[in-house]
Amino acid sequence: MIRVLLADDHEIVRLGLRAVLEEADDIEVVGEVATAEGAIAAAQAGGLDVILMDLRFGAGAEGTLVSTGADATAEIKRTMKNPPNVLVVTNYDTDAEIMGAIEAGAVGYLLKDAPPSELLAAVRSAAEGDSALSPVVANRLMTRVRTPRTSLTPRELEVLKLVAAGSSNREIGKVLFLSEATVKSHLVHIYDKLGVRSRTSAVAAAREQGVL
């Protein structure tokens, strides 16, 4: 029996997922949580094989200590010797979201409009530790591998070079005569184009693709 936890801050989504999963004889929904923190706590309590993890959660009882499903996934992987496998189920399909979840340790990535048969197959694959990507996500990843999105503007490239040199947002702003908010906006665009979620990953990806 595959023991599944549902981690999503929308009750109607959890009800829908539960309805599909409980039709299967080999899958049991053993719990539900509405926050990223709750997902971490449930995982660490044990007794789970697979977590269906949303990517974005509202604030928990103590505020949003861990704000995303990717953060929760990384924390679960970091703190547990034999963690449950995480299958992301979300509405978000940008390169940055997909790569962030996979880099955090998720074994699969499904969109919420996936048909029930695809969801059940993905849960079974995730329970075995196998990759489970919806066709849409798989196609995006293959496209990204074949044609990296490296079309950084000259200004974005200037920002990235200063990031690579170790400059803070404030220092970058002073050098380029930009506000910190504008620097942050450039970084968001850089992350999206490179399919990453952090300064370090952006620099590494840019170097790998020959941008820097």
TrEMBL record:
Residues 145-210 form the HTH luxR-type domain. The modification 4-aspartylphosphate is found at residue 54. The keyword Transcription applies. Transmembrane segments: none annotated. InterPro entries: CheY-like_superfamily, NreC/VraR/RcsB-like_REC, Sig_transdc_resp-reg_C-effctor, Sig_transdc_resp-reg_receiver, Tscrpt_reg_LuxR_C, WalR-like. Keywords: DNA-binding, Phosphoprotein, Transcription, Transcription regulation. The keyword RNA-binding does not apply. GO terms for molecular function: DNA binding. Pfam families: GerE, Response_reg. Residues 3-127 form the Response regulatory domain. Gene3D superfamilies: 3.40.50.2300. One of its GO terms (biological process) is regulation of DNA-templated transcription. SUPFAM superfamilies: C-terminal effector domain of the bipartite response regulators, CheY-like. PANTHER family: TRANSCRIPTIONAL REGULATORY PROTEIN NARL-RELATED (PTHR43214:SF24), TWO-COMPONENT RESPONSE REGULATOR (PTHR43214). This is Response regulator transcription factor.
